[in-house]
Design brief:
mainly alpha
């Protein structure tokens, strides 16, 4: 069974969040405070989706533009 658009969107959000966290840790280095890492990760995440309110809604809106999407 195929995953729904919402399930795909949720998975993509999780992937971007993981990537943002990894890059925040790498950027700040060993010994950085957890709060600084999480703040930077949130900034990376927000920039990746260029969002204000909801990452899943932003992803779903962008997904409407893909040429292979079935109607």
């Amino acid at each position: 069974e195929w995953e729904t658009a919402q399930e795909r969107a949720n998975r993509q959000v999780l992937i971007v969040r993981q990537n943002a966290l990894s890059n925040a840790v790498t950027s700040l280095g060993v010994g950085a405070k957890d709060s600084d890492i999480l703040r930077l990760a949130d900034m990376f995440f927000d920039w990746s989706f260029r969002i204000v309110d909801n990452a899943v809604d932003a992803y779903l809106q962008a997904a409407d533009d893909v040429p292979w999407k079935k109607s």
